[in-house]
DNA sequence: ATAGGGTTAG
């Protein structure tokens, strides 16, 4: 076809329908030497630029760089195209080039597109520069640009700046309100969002779908089911019947709002009635909502029925299992996800790492950490770093946790990260280090919270830092204004009791602003045991029985105490009462991970079905003979103050950690450190046995129980026999 | 101009 002049060219470019067609038209323009018809050229150029695939954008770039002096429309299209392809940095960099070369000045479209990209950049710097140009060139009154400026401010956390722009606007339209409400949602200011909504309806502006999507997301963190219902009602009042066709996003947002405040019945209702074709966001909301409500099975049912899953849905179910403490199943699901070919992102890795931390699965955890390093997620995500530090600490590698923590720059250290580090150090009995990390926290002006002090006080009590603990307890309320909670008192009672200040500890309990719970009495009892104070032990155990009548250990405890004071009849009655109520101690289990990364679980006295049962039995015999050689005798004092959570059988009892140890000794090389996780506190017998065995086998053994880590080495334990 | 999944303690 012969193209002779601009008019026929224009007609042709305007009928362009497919990418192939566009290539043909462009070829004809080039063949006929018609590039000088800039208006037509820019039309076909914008088709390529906005088509939305990397290849067509590449072609658009070619056309653009071959054009001698592009007009503003072409520059704007370039910026817009990069912005739509999430290439915000490139979009912003086009602006200086444009100012230097363009024959026309930037217009309002230029700034709207640019500010949109600035809003999505991590740093506010470029946006500020553009802001300056907007003022210089007199575009500030333009409502589109004002809205774009507000959007930029909100996305960069500049709430006051956004608020000022909004207040000083002579005209505020629907988009102004929507932008502000959605900005308040992003900045977690739900009350500001609500009052903006109120203001909006007072000024007669009718809200739309966008308004409610923003309002739902702003209020989803409030955990207020009454408010959720009110917002749902408002949607009806203003928009009438909303279903998937008229507002797919909005339905999803309402569902999410309900799931976040635990209203799963309402969420389910909206989900089944108004979303005939289930959207992935709504599915993810439902899955994590059920999981958060402790209904993992229901979450799983929904998950299983989805054919096309994405990373977010997988993450929802994995973290659901992890939060429910079903760590092994969480890891299984993660394996399945990998098999399906989907790539995890930061959030997925956080969920998996927390499962590893729960299991003490170091090998898997390290693999996940390497993955996050390879994907360059690490260091850019504060939560991910926290999860990694926590994983290392809970897997026994406290030095690795510290190393990683040290590499995080001050600006990226959050309260959560400090808490994970301090808590980890506390569990390893490294009280002095925990306190010095806290001093760092104070000097970097990261605000401690109640979790920080729980960790700190716990660290002090595990390391016997009595005076330090007392002064931190004061600091918490007097300087930081944090009211001590039950766990803080609990740490203090532990701390004082351990130091032999039993009367002080008892006074502490009496002067508490609330009734002491069983944990506190149990802690006092532990101190009574350590310091041999039978009288106070009786008081504590009586309180325990009163508070936890269904807890088997308390019956045993009381009956033992009564027995020592020769109150045989009473002791028998307590025992009988316990049997009649069918109370048992909870089953104990232990995990051990061997070096091939597999995790093995053992329950007390149960290994008969294990494939290595013969070897385990013989190793147990070997362990017992070595124990006898080392002069092991079961502790009789212990029985009086039986604070153990697990039922004892014989001296040769096979508590789960002993089975795990036998298995570990069988399946590891000499000198390899063995690490065992236990679901209850380790008992006195096992503790003594492990100390002796660490020497007898010349092995370092690490046991993580519910309270802390025990590092057994050369006949001694890092807990110095207090736990 | 729109939605969904995450970390610390007890």
UniProtKB/TrEMBL annotation:
A GO-annotated cellular component: cytoplasm
GO process terms (BP): mRNA modification
Domain DYW positions: 631-723
The keyword Repeat is assigned to this record: yes
Keywords: Repeat
InterPro entries: DYW_dom (IPR032867), E_motif (IPR046848), PPR_At4g14850-like_plant (IPR046960), PPR_rpt (IPR002885), TPR-like_helical_dom_sf (IPR011990)
Alphabetical list of PROSITE patterns matching this protein: PPR
Source superkingdom: Eukaryota
Gene3D superfamilies: Tetratricopeptide repeat domain
Keyword Cytoplasm in record: no
Intervals holding PPR repeats: 173-207, 310-344, 414-448, 449-479
Gene Ontology MF term list: RNA binding; zinc ion binding
SUPFAM superfamilies in UniProt: TPR-like
Annotated PANTHER family: PENTATRICOPEPTIDE REPEAT-CONTAINING PROTEIN
Family: Belongs to the PPR family. PCMP-E subfamily.
Record protein name field: Pentatricopeptide repeat-containing protein At5g66520-like
Record organism: Punica granatum
Lineage: Eukaryota, Viridiplantae, Streptophyta, Embryophyta, Tracheophyta
């Amino acid at each position: 076809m012969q193209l002779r002049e601009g008019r026929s060219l224009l007609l042709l470019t305007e009928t362009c329908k497919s990418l192939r067609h566009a290539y043909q038209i462009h070829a004809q323009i080039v063949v006929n030497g018609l590039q000088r018809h800039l208006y037509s050229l820019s039309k076909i150029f914008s088709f390529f630029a906005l088509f939305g695939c990397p290849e067509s954008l590449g072609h658009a770039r070619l056309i653009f760089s071959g054009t001698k002096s592009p007009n503003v429309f072409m520059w704007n299209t370039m910026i817009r195209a990069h912005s739509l392809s999430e290439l915000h940095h490139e979009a912003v960099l086009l602006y200086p080039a444009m100012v230097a070369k363009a024959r026309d000045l930037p217009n309002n479209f230029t700034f709207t597109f640019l500010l949109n990209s600035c809003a999505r950049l991590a740093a506010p710097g470029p946006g500020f520069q553009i802001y300056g140009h907007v003022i210089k060139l007199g575009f500030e009154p333009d409502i589109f640009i004002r809205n774009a400026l507000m959007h930029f401010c909100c996305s960069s956390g500049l709430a006051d700046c956004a608020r000022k722009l909004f207040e000083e606007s002579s005209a505020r339209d629907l988009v102004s309100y929507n932008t502000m409400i959605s900005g308040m949602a992003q900045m977690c200011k739900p009350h500001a969002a609500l009052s903006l909504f109120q203001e909006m309806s007072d000024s007669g502006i009718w809200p739309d779908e966008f308004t409610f999507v923003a309002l739902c997301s702003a209020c989803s963190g409030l955990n207020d089911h009454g408010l959720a219902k009110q917002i749902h009602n408002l949607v009806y009042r203003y928009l009438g019947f909303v279903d998937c066709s008229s507002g797919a996003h909005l339905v999803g947002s309402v569902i999410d709002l309900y799931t976040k405040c635990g209203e799963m019945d309402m969420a389910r209702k909206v989900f089944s009635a108004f979303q005939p074709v289930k959207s992935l966001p709504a599915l993810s909301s439902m899955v994590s909502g059920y999981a958060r409500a402790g209904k993992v099975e229901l979450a799983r049912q929904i998950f299983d029925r989805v054919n096309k899953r994405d990373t977010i849905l997988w993450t929802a179910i994995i973290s659901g299992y992890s939060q429910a403490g079903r760590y092994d199943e969480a890891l299984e699901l993660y394996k399945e996800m990998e098999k399906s070919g989907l790539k995890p992102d930061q959030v997925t890795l956080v969920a998996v790492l927390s499962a590893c931390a729960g299991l003490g699965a170091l090998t898997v955890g390290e693999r996940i950490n390497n993955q996050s390093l390879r994907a360059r997620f690490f260091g850019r995500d504060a939560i991910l770093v926290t999860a990694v530090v926590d994983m290392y600490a809970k897997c026994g590698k406290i030095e690795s946790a510290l190393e990683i923590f040290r590499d995080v720059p001050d600006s990226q250290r959050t309260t959560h990260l400090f808490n994970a580090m301090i808590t980890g150090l506390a569990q390893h009995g490294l009280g002095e280090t925990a306190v010095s990390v806290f001093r760092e926290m104070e000097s970097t002006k990261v605000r401690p919270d109640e979790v920080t002090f729980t960790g700190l006080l716990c660290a002090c009590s595990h390391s016997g830092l009595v005076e330090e603990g007392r002064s931190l307890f004061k600091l918490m309320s007097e300087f930081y204004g944090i009211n001590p909670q039950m766990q803080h008192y609990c740490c203090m009672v532990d701390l004082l009791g351990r130091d032999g200040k039993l009367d002080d500890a008892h006074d502490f309990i009496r002067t508490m602003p609330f009734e002491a719970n069983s944990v506190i009495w149990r802690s006092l009892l532990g101190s009574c045991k350590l310091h041999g104070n039978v009288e106070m032990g009786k008081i504590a155990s009586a309180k325990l029985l009163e508070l936890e009548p269904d807890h088997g250990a308390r019956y045993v405890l009381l009956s033992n105490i009564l027995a020592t004071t020769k109150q045989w009849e009473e002791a028998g009655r307590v025992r009988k009462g316990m049997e009649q109520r069918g109370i048992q101690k909870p089953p104990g289990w232990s995990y051990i991970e061997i070096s091939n990364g597999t995790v093995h679980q053992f329950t007390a006295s149960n290994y008969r079905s294990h494939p290595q049962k013969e070897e385990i039995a013989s190793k147990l015999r070997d362990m017992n003979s070595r124990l006898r050689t080392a002069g092991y005798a079961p502790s009789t004092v212990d029985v009086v103050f039986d604070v153990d959570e697990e039922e004892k059988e014989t001296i040769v009892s096979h508590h789960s950690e002993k089975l795990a140890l036998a298995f570990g000794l069988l399946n590891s090389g000499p000198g390899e450190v063995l690490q065992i996780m236990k679901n209850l506190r380790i008992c006195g017998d096992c503790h003594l046995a492990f100390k002796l065995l660490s020497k007898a086998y010349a092995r370092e053994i690490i046991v993580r129980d519910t309270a802390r880590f025990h590092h057994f080495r050369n006949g001694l334990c890092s807990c110095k026999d207090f736990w």
